[in-house]
Structure formats: C-alpha cells, structure tokens
Amino acid sequence: MSQADNKPVIPRNFLISFIMVTFLFSLWGFANDITNPMVAAFKNVLLLTNTQSSWVQSAFYGGYCFMAIPAALFIKRFTYKSGVLIGLGLYATGCLLFVPASSVQSFGPFLMAYFVMTCGLSFLETTANPYILAMGPEETATRRLNLAQSFNPIGSITGMFIAKEFILARLDSASEAERRVLLDTDTDAFNAIAKSDLAVITGPYIILGIVVIVAFIIFALTKFPHTGSTEHKPMDISGTLGRLFKRPIYVWGVVAQAFYVGAQIMCWTFIIQYAGATMDMSKADAQGYNIIAMVIFVSSRFICTFFLRYFRPGFMLSCLAVGGAVLILGVIFLPGMIGLWCLVGVSACMSLMFPTIYGLALDGLGEDAKLASAGLILAIGGGCLMPPLQAMIIDQETVFGMVGARASFVLPLICFIVIAIYGYAASCFGKKAGLSA
C-alpha cells in the first residue's frame, strides 16, 4: 500500500465541482465518438476517397493543436471556470455551424464546423484535466484523474450509439457505386439523396449544441471552490517552459500522448473500413463492434483504476501497451472474425493510457501544470496527423501482399511500442531520476 491510500481521492469540499467537471469528460467523449464514424459516412455521401474523408479527423483534432497553447495561457492568466465557459461556447458554436454547412452541401464547411468545435474541446480538456488534478492531495492526483476519465467513455458509448442508430442506419442505402452512376446520369437525384443524408448527419449535432448551451448556463451560474493555485499570478512563460523542458518525464510524456491519441483514433475510426474490407460487413454492423469495443474500454478503465492502488502507473502503462501491440499483430495477421475481435480487444489495453500518461507528465508541477497541460492537449494532434497516413495505406488495394486495411494497422503497432517504452522508463527509472509519480 502506498501513502496515497491514506489521502482522500476527492475531498468533500470538491465533490460537487468534481461531479460537474467530470460531466465535461463525457461531453467531449460524445463529440469524439459520434465523429469517428463520420469518416465513413462522408466518404459515401460525398463520394470521397479514404484519404479525403480522413480530413474529418484532421480538422477535428487540428482544433486541439491550434487552441491548446492559447487555452493554457488563458487559464494561467484567469481561472479554470473561465476556461470551461470559453470551451463550452466554442463547442456549441461548432455544433450549430453544421446547419449552414448542410445547406451548402460541401465538405469544407463541415470541416470548419469540426475545427471550431474542437477549439472548444481543446479549451475544455486543457482546463478540466489540471483542474481535476488540483482538486485534492497530489498523492491521489493520478487516481482522481483516472476516476474522472472513467466517465469519458460513457459519453463515447452514447456518441457511438447515436452514430449507429440515428446516422449510419438512416443514411440512404445506395452504395458508393450506385451514387456515382446517379452523379453521372441524374444529378438532381444524386443531390436529393446527398441533401437528405447530410440532414441526417446534422440533426444530432444540433441537439448536441443545445445540450452544450444548457451546460454553459449551469456552469456560469455555479460558484466553484478555490483550488489553492494562484489564479492571478503574473505569467512567466519562458521560465515555465525552461522548467518543463528540464523534465524528461514531461517532454517524453507529450511524445507518448501523441502516439497514444493517434493509436486510439486509428483503431476506432478504421474498424469500419477493416470489417468492410476483410468481411464485407456493412457500416452500421461494423459500428456495432465499435460500441462493444467502447464497453470493454469503459469496463477496463474502472478495473485498471482500481489496480492503480497496488501497481505503479508506469508499470501498468507499459504492460497494457505491450498487450495492445500483441493484439494489433493479431489484427494484421489473423483472419476474419479473429482479427476483428483482436481489434475490439485493443480497447481494453487503451483504457488507462491517456489519463496515466497525463498524470505522470504533470505530477508535481503545481502552477506550471496550467501551461504544461497545453503540451499534452497539443499532443492530441497525433489524431490529426496519423489517420490520414493510415487512410493512404487503406486506399492501396494491397500492401506487402495483404489487404491495405490490414497492413495499415502497422501504424498503431508502432504507437504502442513507443508507449510501452515510456511506461517502462517511468516505472524503472522514474524515482532514481526524479521523473515519475
């Protein structure tokens, strides 16, 4: 047992604020996982290649990159609550931009809507993660963040379900080939189908925007307890960056986080393409396996959070990354349903990774955590860069003698190897070098 076991994970005076901020984790989980299947949806509706449709993820996660540093500077100058309100405002605006995007029937405006939405999500994540860490003793900070992150997949599962039942299942059944024929022979009929499908895609985002506006109002009217940080302390950006770059656990944590987010997005976005290419499975049916993967992810998150009481975070991170790499080898080389179930099973290994890397990297940073968190949110840019690379491989009919959808998962394999090395280093050398939690 560690000394942290004698400390409260959530002090009583922070309970209400912890619950409210934890709700935000579900809120951005919903946005993340209603969006992943839209890569396949836009591909069919607007007749795009896999590479072109993957720009949904580039725009979505590009917002994280663009806004991470400004968000960190904002909350360093002002308050966590102010950061939450800005984030919710941008989030709602991005959702409502789907209305004009749908009327234009062009891919570009949808990408802009996703970008604005995730500028808001970047504000929320840059704010909420260090805020949760600050809501109690440093000794229980990683456990507290893992507990809050455990509710993120609840929003994710809801988003996946909405995508499956209220978007993918309701899109016109015309195949991509049939749509191309219509585009050449009956443009009006093609435009009518596209307009109807884009309205189906837009509907849930409008409802989401309304929910976010309600959340904005509730947060605006609620008073939050002081976290003990110096909210109006003058900014010392150069000094903070200098201290951060002297901490290997932080610098390499940013790198590991980028690879983790890339792996997560690739595994969840392209499960539809994998099932379609290897077993000719429909998009809606394949999304069902994505939902199963998220249920496993949720269950594993709670189980792994419990085991953090007995094992060092870095050790668990390394073990889970090795397990993920082994399963990805199954995705690449094992046939049919076995390969698909390996891809589903990877979610059990990914469950603990984001908050554990986050907690290891920010441990003991105090006020510097506000700016440091921006680097870790900036690392979400891994989800911006890696999916298009995987999509380019999928667009190839065969790579090294195998279907492109199989070969493309070599990219997540590399990601898990990097994460395993980071976890091993944090576990084995952290204390001696003053690096780990």
Short description:
The protein is mostly helical.
Structure description:
The chain has 437 residues and is mostly helical. It has one domain (3-222, 234-433): Growth Hormone, Chain: A, CATH 1.20.1250.20. The chain contains 22 helices and 2 strands. The protein has helices at residues 15-35, 38-45, 50-53, 55-77, 80-96, 98-104, 107-134, 141-149, 152-167, 176-185, 187-221, 237-245, 248-269, 271-279, 283-307, 313-333, 336-350, 353-362, 369-378, 382-394, 404-407, 410-433, and strands spanning 398-399, 402-403. The protein has a two-stranded antiparallel ribbon. Strand 1 (398-399) and strand 2 (402-403) form a beta hairpin. Helix 4 packs antiparallel against helix 20 (382-394), helix 13 (248-269) runs antiparallel to helix 18 (353-362) and helix 13 crosses helix 20 (382-394). The radius of gyration is 21 Å and the shape is globular. It starts with 14 loop residues before the first helix and ends with a helix. The model is unreliable at 431-437 (pLDDT under 50).
